[in-house]
Specification:
Order of helices and strands: HHHEEEEEHEHEEEEEHEEEHEEHEHEHH
Distance between the termini: 9 Å
Number of helices: 11
Shape: elongated
Number of domains: 2
Strand order of the largest sheet: 1-2-6-3-7-18-8-17
Oligomer: single chain
CATH class of the largest domain: Alpha Beta
Structural class: alpha+beta
Helix content: 25-40%
């Protein structure tokens, strides 16, 4: 039976998974607090015959294992955490939730503004489909739900908690790791790409030190706000004058905090900086240049001590294995036809998905197995068409926007089809 025919026959009525999606969307959990998502995933997997479920991996992470005779082991991954965003979609199932973030003790609005609720619903429906279709494939299927993707630490935490350790959680070692992400592409579309498919991202906190005092006597102080302002402007010179124009990189100073009132010069200023790029050499160069410029600006202002650099998160490059991606693309051509773009633009955002593959033991006695990560659309095609005609693509809500919420169908169906087709590409028929 061909994969398109199998999808037609075995994908269940998705209305049940639509209701799961709405409940997850309405009740999101911040990173490491994804309790409902984790409990829902475990409960649904346990309903399926022959799935072995193991929970509490790296926090709220879990796996479901379906062994179906001898054959390859395929791992499908979905992330489950939400974001500190106040939802403005106006949907009847919109989130109004607020919760205290365990990372800093601050109460925040919470929203599934990146589509991870859609990832969960797609994965659960895909698990049911593959369970029902177990007569036409052989091998081992691992369904993995990962927490804390948004802070770039969930995959690493699962690995460090013994995901693949036979004495701990004993996840079967995958031959291939697969994953997907919903994006503001037209719903029904799927995109693949070989090689580097997502940027690396490095975030850190920089503290610069001055000497506080009264605003009427600036000559008696060393102003950290002035230092910080010059740093913010000067950092953009790295992009315009140090990075090859045919390459790309982004430096964002997302937060600058100093002082409490207008007539007091503060003692210090704190900058939160994020760097993204697609080239390992550029990454190293930009990070070195940031340190050079921050130190130079502090020296120029006669800072009272050296600036402090504190890393807060780091995402690796997302790299799709060429052979794996080509095989997957061939399948997607059969399933999606003209709705499959096999040379989609690289993901500007960053992902820790690849860690599940690069840290997996391989047959050669080292680490690293092939992986592929693809994109699928969640935006009403009519919204995109009108935005293009008006030259206003910036009006289309993107991931992390308070207005981002995928249209449920055909997004859910497309995500399920892609996961099932992806798994069947590598499982033994």
């Amino acid at each position: 039976m061909s994969i398109p025919s199998l999808l037609q026959e075995y994908i269940p009525d998705l209305s049940y998974y639509e209701s799961i999606y709405k409940n997850l969307h309405q009740n999101p959990g911040l990173s490491l607090q994804e309790h409902l998502a984790s409990e829902t995933a475990a409960k649904e997997l346990r309903k399926l015959p022959d799935f072995e479920v193991r929970t509490s991996i790296g926090g709220t992470g879990l796996i479901g294992i379906l062994k179906n005779s001898s054959g390859p082991t395929i791992l499908l991954r979905a992330d489950i955490d939400a974001l500190p965003v106040k939802e403005l979609t106006g949907l009847p199932y919109a989130s109004t939730k607020r919760e205290v973030d365990g990372a800093d003790g601050i109460e925040k609005d919470v929203m599934h503004a990146c589509g991870h609720d859609m990832h969960i619903a797609c994965m659960l429906a895909a698990a049911e489909t593959l369970s029902k279709a177990n007569s036409i494939w052989k091998g081992t299927l691992v369904i993995l739900f990962q927490p804390n993707e948004e802070r770039g630490a969930g995959a690493k935490a699962m690995i460090e908690d013994g995901l693949y350790d036979p004495e701990r959680h004993a996840c079967p070692i995958p031959d291939v790791v697969l994953g997907q992400h919903v994006m503001p592409l037209a719903a029904g579309q799927v995109g693949t790409r070989t090689g580097i498919s997502g940027s690396a991202a490095d975030s850190f906190r920089v503290t610069v030190y001055g000497k506080g005092g009264h605003a009427s006597q600036p000559h008696m102080t060393i102003d950290p706000v002035f230092m910080a302002a010059n740093i913010v402007v000067r950092l953009q010179g790295i992009i315009s004058r140090e990075v090859n124009p045919q390459d790309s990189a982004v430096i964002t100073v997302g937060s600058v905090v100093a002082g409490m009132t207008e007539n007091i010069i503060a003692d210090e200023a704190v900058l939160k900086i994020n760097v993204r790029n697609f080239n390992p050499e550029t990454r190293e160069k930009v990070l070195k240049s940031i340190r050079r410029i921050v130190k130079a600006e502090c020296d120029a202002s006669n800072a009272t001590k050296e600036p402090l650099f504190e890393p807060t998160s780091s995402f690796p490059f997302l790299v799709n294995d060429d052979d794996t991606t080509q095989k997957l693309s061939d399948t997607f051509n059969d399933v999606f036809g003209e709705n499959h773009n096999q040379n989609c633009a690289p993901l500007g955002g960053s992902e820790d998905f690849g860690t599940l593959a690069t840290e997996a033991p391989n047959k050669e006695g080292g680490k690293g197995v092939p992986s592929c990560y693809w994109l699928f659309g969640g935006t009403d095609p009519e919204v995109i068409r009108k935005a293009k005609e008006a030259g206003r693509m910036e009006d289309v809500p993107i991931n992390h926007s308070p207005l981002f919420a995928p249209m449920i169908q055909p997004t859910l169906k497309t995500g399920v089809q892609a996961l099932v087709a992806g798994a069947l590409t590598f499982l033994k028929s």
